[in-house]
């Protein structure tokens, strides 16, 4: 049974419904809170949590339950209430299932996963105890060592939930890596992939043949010295570690699906009238014909798209940076992350965006120059890189090899062009010269990269261009 159980209900669970769910462990169970009351916990006799329940989240974006859980939710808006059982305690898992079942019975809706729905009777848990602090101190962390915090996630998609976001934050504050363990068949949200960074943080996939392997690199792993690390071949050298690669990671099937990826940065003057998110919406409209469906500060993205509201969130958090995720609708899968940072130059927006396309769908490559021009003219674009790669239409990250993207275009903003000495920005060693975007007196430049999208030649062109622009 999964460690996470979720109740999807058309009505907000009222305090009495939550209390009835918490009584699934009997009236003598201790109840505690964390995060200023945002998390309620059922605890053992020593006060250590058996089940942690997060405050209900109102979801007003269609398709998020389907994307992240593979299930059908009530019509939007609906309430998403998560309960996480302490790992390795069967009674805790039963308590979480009973909690979600009671909640759904009282306010309508359903519990996920379907096999988590249990009896409404009280779960016998007398004498049950759990691991001592500090592992139990953070509800999302299952194992804590001097090197890493380990999180076990048995979900169709490992997403940047509020649970996992707290685990990332706690690990970073403690100077630890975060290692996520999931079963075979699970995919990773691009949001989590981008947040993992480098060693010792990893996505670890359980595998029948090789035991464990890194879902992003394929390296076969073993638990050693307090962390999952690669298996080293006996005849390895410093120059050639010869780490075995899992067989499952190498099982690649070309379905014809592709992703169009864009990474761009904008720098705005620090002005009280500034509205964030406009650049992302502009690109989304140019490439899909409509704005993002929703946004949030975690997954599921729960709020209807609104640049004004996300600007308010960023303003309230300033001068601390703000991060949020935006998603598309089911007809055109898309996901973006935006990081807003206050710097000496002003307010910076860094956007990473990907759209998925099936084998019978063509990415709108002809619309890219218009999207770049709109960014340069209206949103103070600094730079943008566009790539195309073979990857899943649903934009989820599978635990097997997906090749790198091939650069299709690079864009340099008007201020960056103006700062270049002489005509360096306008004349390059590439066969195709840049296209002017915007006013002739202050143009941005769009550099088509003539590499074949089916191979890696585009990277050679991109590297040549970068060396030229840097004056190398």
Tally the helices. 10
Percent in helix: 10-25%
Q: Proportion of β residues?
A: 25-35%
From the helix content, strand content and strand pairing, which structural class follows?
alpha+beta
- Uncertain regions spanning at least 5 consecutive residues: 26-30, 119-137
What is the general shape? globular
Q: What strand line-up does the widest sheet have?
A: 19-18-20-21-22-17-23-24-26-25
Biggest β-sheet: count, sense, barrel?
A: 10 strands, antiparallel
**What is the strand tally?**
26
Rg, rounded, reads 24 Å
User: Overall mean pLDDT score?
Assistant: 87
Distance between the termini: 57 Å
Can you give me a brief rundown of this structure?
The chain is an alpha+beta fold and 472 residues long. The chain has helices at 15-22, 64-69, 90-107, 162-173, 190-196, 278-288, 307-317, 368-378, 414-419, 457-469, and strands at 4-9, 30-34, 39-43, 49-54, 57-59, 78-85, 110-112, 143-144, 148-152, 157-158, 177-182, 187-188, 202-207, 211-214, 220-224, 227-230, 258-268, 294-296, 303-304, 322-327, 334-343, 346-357, 381-390, 406-412, 435-437, 444-448. It has ten helices and 26 strands.
Structure notes:
- With 472 residues, the protein is α+β, with helices and mostly antiparallel strands.
- 22% of the residues lie in helices and 30% in strands.
- The protein has ten helices and 26 strands.
- Strands 19-18-20-21-22-17-23-24-26-25 form a ten-stranded antiparallel β-sheet. Strands 1, 2, 3, 4, 5, 6 and 7 form a seven-stranded antiparallel β-sheet that branches. The chain has a seven-stranded mixed β-sheet with strand order 8-9-11-13-14-15-16.
- Helix 1 (15-22) packs antiparallel against helix 3 (90-107).
- The chain is globular.
- It starts with a strand and ends with a helix.
- Mean pLDDT is 87; it is low at 26-30 and 119-137.
């Amino acid at each position: 049974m999964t460690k996470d159980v979720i109740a999807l209900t058309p009505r907000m669970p009222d305090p009495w419904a939550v209390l009835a769910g918490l009584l699934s462990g009997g009236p003598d169970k201790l109840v505690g809170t964390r995060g200023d009351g945002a998390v309620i916990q059922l605890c053992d006799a020593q006060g250590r949590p058996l089940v942690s329940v997060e405050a209900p989240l109102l979801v007003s974006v269609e398709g998020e339950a389907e994307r992240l859980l593979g299930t059908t939710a009530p019509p939007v808006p609906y309430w998403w209430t998560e309960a996480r059982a302490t790992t390795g305690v069967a009674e805790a898992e039963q308590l979480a299932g009973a909690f979600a079942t009671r909640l759904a019975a009282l306010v309508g809706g359903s519990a996920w996963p379907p096999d988590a729905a249990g009896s409404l009777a009280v779960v016998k848990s007398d004498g049950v105890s759990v691991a001592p602090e500090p592992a139990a101190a953070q509800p999302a962390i299952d194992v804590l060592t001097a090197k890493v915090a380990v999180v076990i996630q048995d979900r169709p998609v490992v997403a940047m939930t509020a649970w996992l976001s707290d685990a990332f934050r706690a690990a970073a504050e403690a100077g630890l890596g975060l290692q996520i363990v999931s079963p075979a068949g699970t995919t990773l949200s691009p949001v989590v992939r981008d947040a993992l960074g480098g060693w010792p943080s990893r996505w670890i996939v359980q595998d029948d043949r090789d035991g464990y392997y890194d879902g992003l690199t394929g390296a076969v792993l073993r638990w050693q010295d307090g962390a999952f690390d690669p298996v080293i071949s006996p005849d390895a050298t410093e120059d050639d570690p010869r780490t075995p690669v899992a067989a499952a990671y190498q099982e690649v099937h070309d379905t014809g699906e592709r992703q169009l990826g864009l990474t761009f940065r904008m720098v705005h003057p620090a002005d009280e009238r500034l509205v964030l998110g406009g650049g992302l919406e502009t690109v989304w409209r140019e490439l899909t014909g409509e704005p993002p469906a929703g946004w949030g500060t975690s997954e599921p993205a729960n709020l209807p798209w609104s640049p004004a509201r996300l600007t308010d969130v960023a303003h309230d958090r300033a001068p601390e940076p703000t991060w949020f995720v935006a998603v598309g609708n089911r007809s055109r899968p898309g996901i973006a992350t935006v990081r807003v940072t206050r710097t000496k130059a002003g307010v910076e927006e860094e956007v990473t965006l990907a759209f998925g396309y099936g084998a019978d769908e063509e990415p709108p490559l002809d619309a890219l120059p218009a999207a770049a021009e709109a960014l340069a003219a209206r949103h103070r674009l600094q730079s943008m890189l566009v790539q195309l790669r073979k990857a899943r239409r649903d934009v989820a990250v599978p635990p097997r090899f997906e090749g790198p993207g091939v650069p299709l275009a690079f864009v340099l903003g008007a201020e960056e062009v103006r700062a270049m000495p002489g005509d360096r920005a306008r004349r390059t060693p590439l066969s195709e010269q840049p296209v002017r975007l915007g006013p002739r007196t202050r143009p941005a430049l769009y550099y088509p990269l003539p590499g074949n999208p089916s191979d890696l030649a585009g990277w050679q062109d991109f590297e040549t261009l970068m060396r030229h622009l840097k004056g190398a």
